[in-house]
Amino acid sequence: MKYGIVIFPSKQIQDFANSYRKRYDPNYALITPHVTLKPSFEATEDELKGLTEHLQVVSQNMSPFSLHAYKFSSFSPVNNVIYLKLEATEELVRLYQDLNQDHIIGGVPEYPFVPHITVGQGLSNDEHSDVFGSLQMQQVDFNETVDRFHLLYQLENGSWTVYETFRLGKDC
Fold this sequence. Notes:
Elements: E1 2-7, H1 11-24, E2 35-42, H2 45-60, E3 65-74, E4 82-86, H3 90-99, E5 116-120, H4 125-136, E6 142-146, E7 148-154, E8 160-167
Antiparallel strand pairs: 1-2, 1-7, 3-4, 3-6, 4-5, 7-8
Keywords: Hydrolase
Organism: Bacillus coahuilensis p1.1.43
Family: Belongs to the 2H phosphoesterase superfamily. YjcG family.
């Protein structure tokens, strides 16, 4: 089965991202706007038990932290993805690193960590240029506190749902 690890932002950020995703992201109906901490990976039930134990330890060793979305950006020319860029705070980067250590299931991610929330993908070059050009002019400034992350699994129809939620901090 396929799994992934994400942060779901607040409803306010999700609504903002979805106002673009419903037009520009073919995965709109498959997953809620999110910050990917560990891209999709395959795991068996036995592997999952060890992984959830590790995720519990990681969550207990982290405190809630600030998340700041501050502009639209793009991965072009590598691919035509438009996203809300997030500040790479020390805490967010540390959480990402703790979840992607070499001994963890799924191995090392293919791309370096760029904290973001995707709002458009699969766009033609012209469409990407037009959409990104207009979005770049918009002001973006969302601040919130992250106090949890989620282990997701993929359903047969391709959509993703929460398997388990991990609250940050020793008291959780």
